[in-house]
Amino acid sequence: MISIEKFEIFGREIWIAVFFEEKIDGVTFSLDGCEYLMERINSLKALLERRNVSVNLAEEKSDYPKIVYNVLVGDIENQDALRFLSFRGVTPFEKKVYEVLTKKVKRGSVITYGELAKMLSTSPRAVGNAMKRNPYPIIVPCHRVVLKSGLGDYTPKREYKQFLLEIEGVKGWTS
Q1: Residue 141 within a domain
Q2: What does the record give as the active site?
Q3: Residues 25-52 pLDDT 10s
Q4: Strands of 24-30's sheet, edge to edge?
C-alpha cells in the first residue's frame, strides 16, 4: 500500500509518500509538488520491484508519512525510526551500511564516503552505490554523506540534499 501526505517545513511544501505492508518498504518525497512526487513514486516502485518487493499502489492512510516527517524535523531520532523499516529487498551489505550510517552520523553532522567506508572496511564506491539505492531517504540519512571535496550528488536532486542539511543546521556543506 501507499500513504501520501503533504507537510510544510521552512515555508516549503514537502510531499512524503511511503510504501508499506506491516513495515515501511520505501520512502520518497518531493519539494516540487505532487506531480513530481508521482515521478518519484514511479522510480521507487521500479527500484522495489527490481528487488522483488511487491508494491501495491492502493492508497491507505497510515502514520508512516508523519513518522518520516517527524524524523525530518528532529522530533524522532533517525536510529529510533529504524524499527519501522522492513529492509525487504535490501542486501545484507546495504542494511549494514544503512544501520551504521543511521546510528553513527547524527543530525547536524556529515561524513565523507571515505570515512564511512573506513568504518565499514569497504570502498567509498561501495558506500556510494548503497546510498544511491537507499529506499529509505530521510530515515536513513544518505544526505549526510558527502564528498571530501564538497556536497556530492543526491537522488532525486542535489537541491534536496542541500535543503535537508539546512533543516538539520549543517553549516559549510550546503553552498
Answers
A1: yes
A2: 142 (nucleophile)
A3: 999 999 999 999 999 999 999 999 999 9
A4: 2-9, 12-20, 24-30
pTM of the model as a whole: 0.94
Domain membership of residue 149 (yes or no) is yes
Quickly list DSSP for 154-172.
-SS-HHHHHHHHHHTT--S
User: CATH number, domain at 18?
Assistant: 3.30.160.70
Please state the domain count of the chain: 1
Q: With b meaning 16 or more CB within 10 Å and e meaning fewer, what string describes 118-128?
A: eebeeebebbb
| Active-site choice (142, 145, 167, 170) | 142
**142 carries an active-site annotation:** yes
pLDDT for the residue 155: 76
Which set of grid coordinates corresponds to residue 51? 528487488
